[in-house]
Design brief:
Strand content: 35-45%
Radius of gyration: 13 Å
Number of domains: 1
Distance between the termini: 16 Å
Largest sheet: 3 strands, antiparallel
Strand order of the largest sheet: 2-5-6
Shape: globular
Number of helices: 2
């Protein structure tokens, strides 16, 4: 699937990954708008990496153009 294919799935709460990564990456998910210290946090992507936990994720041009995205459970 393309990033355009998985974006609606991310917005629906699904977790996705690129099969081409094949490393410690477990999944990417979208975090909805929330608040922190009384301020609004806009939606953002997190990636779960085995042994490291969560970190912010910003897709690269290669990620956006890739066709190996898939939904994970």
């Amino acid at each position: 699937m393309t990033f355009e294919d998985v974006l609606p799935k991310l917005k629906a709460g699904k977790k996705v990954i690129r099969s081409g990564w094949g490393g410690a990456e477990l999944y990417v998910k979208l975090v909805d708008e929330s608040t922190h210290d009384g301020e609004t946090l806009n939606p953002y992507f997190l990636i779960n990496v085995r042994g490291e936990g969560y970190t912010m994720f910003t897709p690269t041009v290669c990620d956006i153009l890739a066709e190996d995205w898939k939904v994970v459970e």
